[in-house]
Amino acid sequence: MKTLKQEITNITLKNGLKVHLLSDINTNEHFVNIAVNFGSIDLDVNNTKLPLGTAHFLEHVMFAKKDGDYFEDFNKNGANSNAYTSYNHTLYQFSCIDKIIDNFNLLMDMVTTLTITNKTIKKEYLIIKEELNMYNQIPEEKLKSMQMKQLIKTTNYKYDIGGTTNTIEDINITNLEMAFNKFYKIVNMDLFIYSPMKIDKQLEMINNYFSKKNPPIKYEKFKKLLPLEYEKFNLAKEKKIYDSKCNTIISTINYPIKESLTIQELISLKAYLHMKFSTINNNYNIAVKKKIINNSFNYDVITYKNCYYITFTCYLERNCNSYIKFVKDNISNDTKINDLTLGIKKLQANELRKYNNKKKSFQNLIYEYYLGIDNEEYLNCLFDIKFDSFKSLVLNKVNKQPHISSIFPPINKI
Q1: Which pLDDT score is estimated for 2?
Q2: Which of 218, 347, 352, 367 has the most CB atoms around its CB within 10 Å?
Q3: Which of 22, 2, 405 is nearest to 201 (CA)?
Q4: CA triplet 284, 287, 292: central angle to 5 degrees?
Q5: Are 92 and 83 in contact (CB under 8 A)?
Q6: Class of domain 238-413
């Protein structure tokens, strides 16, 4: 049986565009994504500092055109379109049942041309300002922003993806054009297509688009940005704030990982967490019975290309000290081989659930592609976990002291 990676056709076109194509005769949906390797952490262009939030702002204005906007055009063609900005890329996508060629041409026109005016910028500024203010009213978003600033010391991950209402005031036509001209080059993009069309028809559609461009899009060398060094985290600390919008305590505990992980180590660490903090662990079940934690309790390994950390989150109705003590004690307790086996099996079941249909698998592959994770290697390592990797990994790479961030309701609500 072929793996998903073996079914995907990966080609780099003569103009430098990297395409990743998957054909599935069992679907009637076309799902097209184009990602620009430009995200919120990319703030330097030709020795000029971009305002925080530039990548996100540019994502918004890319939908503008001289005679309307691309959202309207996609809607007229029966397509659902969307976009998002992450730390290290901006992705534009659409899905449709028919008119795939028309919608594909629209998408490519949108990401290869920039049509902005001061009027457009003023309009989007108001929209984005409202969006940022809305996020600032959501306790979970406020907590995430607080914990990143608390954790991150050396890289641009400490800044919110959308910037702030103050920094976006500095965004103008000049720096938007500067960012577009630097990053929105075909050679700096990846195209992902999941479709019932055969691969040769998908390639024909792509080549037809570029052959009709006048002037044609030629290959341009793209000077890669210097890779960020692995994050040097701030010293461990605890921070709490009170928020009138919050009705319950929300607390996160974050353990920085001192250096980058191999895929084998990443999987081992995830299995370790399942073994320590799920229903297969007796300490977890006792903590639930004593109401130290509840069903909202969650954990994960957060992975960016040069910044990894373990995170725990729980919504609590009372003081969070017992919850914090439970996490600290349980992460370092001795472990039995039988418990490790159960943790591995639980991880395997959870991870394989992601791949239960081709579209979900394809979406997951795009996500992992930008984390620098090889999808096939990940699945292979999932069934080849070494017991001896657990203890040394936790002892040597995971910080002993966590960062703790909590948001409390006003004192009279607790």
Answers
A1: 47
A2: 347
A3: 22
A4: 135
A5: yes
A6: alpha beta
Contact between residue 203 and residue 166 where contact means Cβ atoms under 8 Å apart: no
d(CA 193, CA 93): 10
The structure tokens 């709490």 sit at: 240
Q: How confident is the model at residue 224 (pLDDT cuts 50, 70, 90)?
A: low
Query: For residue 316, what are the CA distances in angstroms to 20, 86, 230, 295, 413?
Result: 44, 29, 33, 10, 13
In angstroms, rounded to a whole number, what is the distance separating the alpha carbons of residues 33 and 90?
A: 10
Tell me the C-alpha distance between 346 and 335, whole Å: 16
Q: What pLDDT is stored for residue 228 in this prediction?
A: 76
Q: Which CATH class is domain 4-211?
A: alpha beta
Neighbours of 395 (CB within 10 A): 10
Is residue 89 a contact partner of residue 370, using CB atoms and an 8 Å limit? yes
Return d(Cα 253, Cα 324) in angstroms, integer. Answer: 7
Burial of 235 (0-12, 13-18, 19+ CB in 10 A): exposed
pTM for this predicted structure: 0.91
**Is the C-alpha dihedral spanning 140, 145, 151, 152 positive or negative?**
positive
The phi-psi region of residue 200 (left if phi > 0; otherwise alpha if psi is between -120 and 50; otherwise beta) is alpha
- Residue type at 86? S
Answer for the pair 195, 24: CB distance below 8 angstroms, yes or no: yes
What backbone torsions phi and psi does residue 369 show, to the nearest 5 degrees?
-55, -40
Could you give the C-alpha distances from 32 to 35, 105, 391, in angstroms and in order? Answer: 10, 11, 42
Strand partners, 240: 406
Average pLDDT, stretch 139-149? 92
Ordered by start, the domain boundaries in the chain are 4-211, 238-413
- Write out the two tokens for 240: 């709490």
Contact call for residues 184 and 38 (beta carbons, < 8 A): yes
Is the predicted pLDDT of residue 3 greater than 60, yes or no? no
In angstroms, how far is CA 395 from the centroid of its own chain? 28
Q: Could you tell me whether strands 68-69 and 9-12 are parallel, antiparallel, or unpaired per DSSP bridges?
A: unpaired
307, 154 Cβ separation under 8 angstroms: no
Domains 4-211 and 238-413 share a fold: yes
Q: Rounded distance, CA 408 to CA 414, Å?
A: 8
Query: Confidence class of residue 214 from pLDDT cuts 50, 70 and 90?
Result: confident
| CA distance readout (Å), 263 to 118, 174, 373 | 46, 41, 7
